[in-house]
Amino acid sequence: QVQLVESGGGLVHPGGSLRLSCVVSGIFFKIYDMTWYRQAPGKQRELVADITGEGNTFYEDSVKGRFTISRDNGIDTVYLQMNSLRPEDTAVYYCAAGKTWWGQGTQVTVSS
User: Fold this and answer.
1) How many H-runs (helices) and E-runs (strands) does the chain carry?
2) End-to-end CA distance of the chain, in Å?
């Protein structure tokens, strides 16, 4: 059974930082692309960042320079370091493996 479990969300002031984690089980983690998505209220889900098994990364334009995706293939975990957070980053953040398996999401709220 494939499981993805996100953690690290919460409430943060604008300009603050959070680090999301996603622990994966049930697949051969290191061969899969891992992706962070987010969905804000009333909006479609959007891709935030992606990392290949080899470590190549892609970022959505609005998070470039602020967010960093990384992975640790030794413990089957992908991270999203989020700095300089803005109110518009408020959303439920999901991780996905191979764009096939999904976690349950973790809420990030940026508000003063």
Assistant:
1) 0, 11
2) 40
